[in-house]
Amino acid sequence: MQYECLQFSITDKIAHLVLNRPDAMNTMQPVLWRELGEVLQALQRDGAARVLILSSTGKHFTAGMALDVFGTGITLDDGSAGGRANIAPQLADMQQVFNQLEALRMPVIAAIQGGCVGGGVDMVCACDIRLASADAFFCIQEINIGMTADLGTLQRLPKLIPEGIVHELAYTGRRLPSQRALALGLVNEVFDTQQAMLDAAWTMAREIAARPPVAIWGSKQAIHYARDHATHDALQQMGWLQSGIWHSANLAEAFAARQQGRAPQFDDLPPLQSFAESRYKLK
Q: What is the tens place of the pLDDT at every residue in 36-45?
């Protein structure tokens, strides 16, 4: 399928989603939300990949929301109570795409070069792992144009780095360079070049893809639940989760493969079946 803003491919169980408007610094247009939502929905439904790499083209990962969107593509009506009431569901519609990214049944590795600005920060905060090139920087740009970030940065970023740093960035609009982001734990590693970063992302993706997908899924569920709940509740949830996904055959296959000096073979997650799209016929 051809996309206006994206490139998308799956190779050896690894999905690669590339922001592909380098001449426009990969600014975010309404069409991006539609295309990104379609790709994420297909990945979630089909189970054709075991890990997703999210990267970009050109000098910058993304310059964030295209400002002309608010003049031509999106109208936020603050002239009446009814118009203001519509802002919340409009924002929820946009937030849902990054929620989809966070909730994918597979890990998501973001590979970030140059500027990751505004909506780009919202996007990468919804990913599981972030790698950066040496020239990368992060900026909560919204405050610089007179608004509050509203697509997830202020909700997810405080769970990734110290809250005081989030306050600093959100109030000043300062840039957070890659090395400081590494020291704070926002990114896992910094690389000299974009290519070195992409190579590392693919190496990590191959390692993840070689593990049992159901165990990867379970790990992601447990980590996210523990992030948002008390330890006691998270441990209880872990018991329920493990009882649902325990598969002795995966352990046997891992041990056998190690003894035989071969790569283990694990089952993919099965495709999801949509209730709304079921083929049930009225009688």
A: 999 999 999 9
